[in-house]
Amino acid sequence: MSLHNNELVSIVDDDPLVRAATSSLVRSFGWDARVFASAAEFLASDALERTRCLVCDVQMPDTDGIALLGTLGRQGIRIPTIFITAFATARIRERVPAGAALCLIEKPVDAAELEAWIRRALDHR
């Protein structure tokens, strides 16, 4: 049972090791976590209604994190989002629309930073 009942953090990343590590961290903070290997998998899931925070890779095959956020917005779904990336270049930072995400965290993710941003996301909602 999670310490923060009904606080689901969904993690979308194409890297299975990142999914496993990030979900383990999120659970250690006391929140529920669900992992998805792609934007399509997340969109097709039953987690949309319960997700209170989305931790999403910016660069993924097929639909990237920025496109996923756009799709959610067009569907009227607003989920506080934390982008993560292994490639925090100026070009990537420019691609993230202003105000689209709470932040952009560089991989490897710092546990304290991730926890602080998730708390902000949950308070933001």
Automatic annotation (TrEMBL):
<protein>
    <submittedName>
        <fullName>Response regulator</fullName>
    </submittedName>
</protein>
<dbReference type="InterPro" id="IPR001789">
    <property type="entry name" value="Sig_transdc_resp-reg_receiver"/>
</dbReference>
<dbReference type="GO" id="GO:0000160">
    <property type="term" value="P:phosphorelay signal transduction system"/>
</dbReference>
<dbReference type="Pfam" id="PF00072">
    <property type="entry name" value="Response_reg"/>
</dbReference>
<dbReference type="InterPro" id="IPR050595">
    <property type="entry name" value="Bact_response_regulator"/>
</dbReference>
<keyword id="KW-0597">Phosphoprotein</keyword>
<feature type="modified residue" description="4-aspartylphosphate">
    <location>
        <position position="57"/>
    </location>
</feature>
<feature type="domain" description="Response regulatory">
    <location>
        <begin position="8"/>
        <end position="122"/>
    </location>
</feature>
<dbReference type="InterPro" id="IPR011006">
    <property type="entry name" value="CheY-like_superfamily"/>
</dbReference>
